[in-house]
Amino acid sequence: MSYTALYRKWRPISFEDVKGQDPIVQTLKNQITSERVGHAYLFCGTRGTGKTSIAKIFARAVNCQNPVDGSPCNECPSCKAILEGSSMNVVEIDAASNNGVENIRDIREQVQYPPTDGRYRVYIIDEVHMLSIGAFNALLKTLEEPPSYVIFILATTEVHKIPITILSRCQRYDFKRISLETIADRLRELTQAEHIQVEDKALLYVAKAADGSLRDALSLLDQCVAFHFGTLLTYDNVLEVLGAVDSGIFSQMFGAVVRGDTRQAILTLEELVVQGRELGQFVTDFIWYLRNLLLLKSTDDAEGLLDMSTENQKQLQEDAELADSNTLMRYIRIFSDLSNQLRYASQKRVLVEVAMIRLTKPAMEENLDSVLERLKFLEEQVEDLEARPAGFAAAQTAGTLGPAAGEMPGDGTPEGSRTGARPQNTGEHVPASPSAPQPPKQVALPKAQMEDLNLIRNEWGKLVRALGGGARAYLRDTVVEPSGDSCLTIVFMDSMNYDMGKRPTVIGQLESMVQEKYGRSIYFKTRLAARGESFNTIYVTQEELEEKIHMDITYEEE
Fold first, then answer.
1. 487-492/538-541 β-pairing
2. Cβ of 12: how many Cβ atoms within 10 Å?
């Protein structure tokens, strides 16, 4: 015996079986009981919400010999014939494949003949928006003045494509998306009837993934049950089959994004890819997660709008405290744009990674909400610097605000190279000053080196801002230290910025700008700050030190 898919087996056969469309059902039942049946109906709404099912129920009800409160009995000869598809009174047409003028002309010829049995001939035209302009024009006259025994039911998911002349001749019914609770209740009902063992949490996720479509929910459930047939269908099983991601991953990802930890965000994404999760589904679910965060930030009593457990709501509340509403809206905008791009993309992972970098690096964008986020970041940075030693404060703000005079970092030992040789350290962005600040060391430089250092030190903020684009973001949170004649070393505090900022294209652009603006041929090396490194060295010229005999003199090695 052949297997029947759940969405076909459990298609409603009476108005009482229809879920989530109560106002429409009640209106149609009232028309039948009061014998005020119209001649043309337009059912519009998203897929899987019951348009075709209600059309078929309505077709049986108007021809039923023993209707019960407006619903068909499904037992009389007329109802049975329509259910079996053998009745000549109900004609179903798929406009996607029968959209020409000749198809509509066939209908116009058929409507001239009254039904042999029953009261009405019902024409159900599915996906009616697919009809050609000529076909719509051919249908127009018949639709306007049909015989008294003819009913047209037009169904569509894209009502905006239907000519206004057609719309004005139909009773329009808008089918809304079915609520999560209604879909979940229906899934519980049929799994019990089908003797399917399933966790309630798994059913809730299937209902959520269906996005308001009961038919999609049944198809997804059918898919999951088939993969784990004969065993308890768990939440993890559903995630595995649908390529979805557990909600805890979203909290982990969101935390990395808010901290600006690009590396951790990319690593989390890497784990999802290795696990075989579908990136399009991940993006959709992450947008929904961000939407929930925004609701918590924007409304006083958002718990009633969130379909999740108390435990998950508690975690969501904690995450909502990490970002403001403007930041959340920027995240949603970026991921919504990404969702549209993924539909036609061949390299989905690259697009998702770029979006993650955009989330963690607002300096890479020029729109208003990213500028606001960068201003907020700078305000927090200034507040943080006020509580830190002066030497490190200068080092931290050099890339954006410019260091104070006499507070340039470095110990006078040139490290790295023009290509950015990386020192042996953890690569983490950590405070470089020790817990017990050491007294600043005085280092003497030749006059020419001191002039180069002072020039770049005083203009560093302007230079970084003038670079613009990605280079501007990479050189944020950097400082400059001497490294010999006509040479300076850029010290990076963040490992990912170091990897990007040390590239020859970035350094070459900086050197060209210095040559153009100041007429100086200065070349730059790069290195990454070591853990616990001190940034309170004071640089002076040899003449300045020699004038102060009481001070220890240390000469910079070339």
1. unpaired
2. 18
Q: Which two tokens stand for residue 90?
A: 């109900």
Question: Is the CA virtual torsion 386, 391, 394, 397 positive or negative?
Answer: negative
Phi then psi dihedrals of residue 444, to 5 deg: -95, 140
Residue 153 near residue 122 (C-beta atoms within 8 A): yes
Q: What is the DSSP string of 63-131?
A: H-SS-BTTB--S-SHHHHHHHHT--SSEEEEETTT--SHHHHHHHHHHTTS--SSSS-EEEEEETGGGS
pLDDT in tens, 293-341: 888 888 776 666 665 556 667 778 888 888 888 888 888 988 888 888 8
What's the CA dihedral at 388, 392, 393, 395 to 10 degrees?
-160
Where does the pLDDT of residue 396 fall: very low under 50, low under 70, confident under 90, or very high at 90 and above?
very low
Q: Which of 54-68, 397-411, 441-455 has the highest mean pLDDT?
A: 54-68
Q: What does the alpha-carbon distance between residue 353 and residue 499 come to, in Å, rounded to a whole number?
A: 16
How many Å apart are CA 202 and CA 130, to the nearest integer? 37
Question: What are 534-548's pLDDT values in tens digits?
Answer: 777 888 877 766 665
Tokens of 495: 């490992």
Least Cα distance to 42 among 196, 195, 155 occurs for 155
Is 488's pLDDT higher than 90? yes
Q: How confident is the model at residue 416 (pLDDT cuts 50, 70, 90)?
A: very low
Cα first-last separation, the chain: 89
- Least confident residue range of 103-117, 398-412, 502-516: 398-412
Confidence bin at 171 (pLDDT 50/70/90): very high
Q: At what angle do helices 348-360 and 325-342 cross, to 10 degrees?
A: 170
Q: Which residues contact 518 (CB under 8 A, 6 or more apart)?
A: 455, 459
Work out the average pLDDT over 194-218.
Answer: 87
Between the alpha carbon of residue 9 and those of residues 193, 400, 514, the distances in Å are: 12, 65, 74
Mean pLDDT (the chain, rounded)? 80
Alpha helix positions (H), 243-367: 247-259, 262-274, 279-298, 310-320, 325-342, 348-360
- Strand segments, DSSP code E, in 127-238 are 150-156, 171-175
**CA distance linking residue 556 with residue 558, whole number of Å:** 6
Q: Is the pLDDT assigned to residue 448 strictly greater than 60?
A: yes
State the Cα–Cα distance between residues 328 and 450, nearest whole angstrom: 46
- The b/e string for 288-298 (b: 16+ C-beta within 10 A; e otherwise) is ebbebbbbbbe
Name the nearest CA neighbour of 242 among 194, 209, 287: 209
- Tell me how far the alpha carbon of residue 325 is from its chain's centroid: 16
Q: Phi, psi at residue 512, to the nearest 5°?
A: -65, -40
Q: Which two tokens stand for residue 270?
A: 């890497």
